[in-house]
Amino acid sequence: MSVQKNISLLPYNSFHIQASAAEFSTVKSVEELMNLLNGPAKLSGLILGGGSNVLFTKNVDGLVLKNEIKGMDEVKEDASHIYVRAGAGENWHAFVEYTLGRNWGGLENLSLIPGSVGAAPIQNIGAYGVELRDVFYELDAYDRIEKKVFTFGLNDCQFGYRDSIFKSSGKGRYVILHVTFVLHKNPVLNTHYGAIQDELRKMGVHSPTIQDVSRAVIKIRRSKLPDPAELGNAGSFFKNPVVDQKTFLFLSERYPEMPAYPHEEQSVKLAAGWLIEQCGWKGYRKGDAGVHKNQALVLVNYGKATGSEIFSLSEQILQSVQQKFGIQLEREVNVF
């Protein structure tokens, strides 16, 4: 373990934004992490996983840690479930493939989501009718204030839509070390999302397995979302807004074609991508900052856009959606 000085963060963020860290170090164990956090270095508060959900708008004055704590193992099981623990530094999709290879169900709808295992509960990642909290059991996290490791159960994490305690009141306080998932030995498929059903039909699959569902999800994601390795982006830049019934009825009368989905507590989730597209942003480009041509929810870096340029574009989009629909979108990406 070593601390490097003035390191470019371009290789460590999927937006391919040029920024630098005054100090940078990778940690591969809990012991290394604690030594660094309790040492003399000035920690910036930024812990990087896969770098797939961060937008750098400035250089980082302080120490940036890259979490590379690895390991995947089964910790216990019962007649119906297997409990699998993964290190926070494991690649998320590689972990999904690990579970699929053993025919453990639960993560197939979350295939190909970029990022690391440790970042997944922070965001409460979700896709195609499944959220991380649906398969979550517990996690271990280092508390930078108390200077010791705590275990968080499901309720402790305060999961919400693309939200958790680690993104809100506990932001910057905890460093996630390991995450344990509860998976099904006899998988129950979740294919009610029309896109999955349509893709399975195209594949000629009538009695799908979890592997088939994963392949369908991967095909859908690749058809809609740009590969960060080829075009800088952080996936969905904005959350899908959740509105009350009164607001939904008001908007649906004026925009009957507006996509909407039932949500918790008599609320309705709207499609942020559709709202943005109706404001004319889909395919927009100014310099190297733009909105993807196939999915208006994704902001992209065509080459040498700065984080400030991407952020400025997101501000314009927020304002136009507010002006047209009266809805305040929220960024899903963490801005630093």
Structural summary, described in words:
This protein is α+β, with helices and mostly antiparallel strands and 336 residues long. Strand 17 and strand 18 form a beta hairpin. Helix 4 crosses helix 5.
Layout: helices, strands, pairs:
Layout: E1 4-8, E2 20-27, H1 30-37, E3 43-48, E4 54-55, E5 60-67, E6 72-77, E7 81-87, H2 92-100, H3 119-123, E8 126-127, E9 130-131, E10 136-143, E11 148-153, E12 174-184, H4 194-202, H5 210-224, E13 232-236, E14 242-244, H6 245-254, E15 260-262, E16 267-270, H7 272-278, E17 285-286, E18 289-291, E19 298-301, H8 307-325, E20 334-335
Helix pairs in contact: 4-5
CATH topology heading of the largest domain:
Uridine Diphospho-n-acetylenolpyruvylglucosamine Reductase, domain 3
Distance between the termini: 25 Å
Mean pLDDT: 94
Radius of gyration: 20 Å
What strand order characterises the main sheet? 6-7-12-10-11
Count of alpha and pi helical runs? 8
Seen as an oligomer or otherwise, the chain set is single chain
Number of strands: 20
Give the class-level CATH name of the largest domain. Answer: Alpha Beta
Shape: globular
